[in-house]
Specification:
Length: 205
Amino acid sequence: MRALIVVDIQNDFCPGGALEINGGNEVVPVANEVIKKFDLIVATQDWHPANHGAFAANHLWRRPGDVIQLNAREQVLQHMHCVQGSFGAEFVQGLDTSNFERVFVKGTDPAIDSYSGFFDNGHLRSTGLGEFLKQRGVREVFILGLALDQCVKYTVLDALELGFATFLILDGCRPINLQEGDSEQAVKEMTEKGAIIVSSTEIRA
Ligand code: VGL
Ligand code: ZN
């Protein structure tokens, strides 16, 4: 059994959004084509409370990009984004969400961030995604979405760690590339751990 995991295709990660990614919206048509080929589709949604500790605005004198200790964990502060119930947190208009079997929200605990769709950054709490997939007999996961060098990367690495055969649909992702070479580094890290890079066009129905 195989499943498609659609990672964080939300307004705030697209041009005009709070954490905009170059070409972020371009993954929508790719995702919609791939979605047609899968019987089991799940999505992740970055879903922060407004008081989240990862937001620079919640720390006096701090700016996005600053690094702080958030409950003994290093945290790069971000612009406020994907606040629960906001437009920025909504899936991008035009993304075909009609066959999403379930949506797993992440980043809901103000005390810890969550890049992976499976666990928070401390691996303290599961979102339920891994358990859900195993319960459904899934052995292969295909992953696309935003951002390649952040949430997609950590979702792929956790999928591998959980024992799923993990395929990264590279043309269905866009990177933040905060630093030059981040996307190449991310792809290298994922493939070294066992992820298989595929193109959306080579996926069979
Ligand atoms: C993401 C930073 C903060 C992502 C989410 O989806 O890549 N990045 N929250
Ligand atoms: Zn976030």
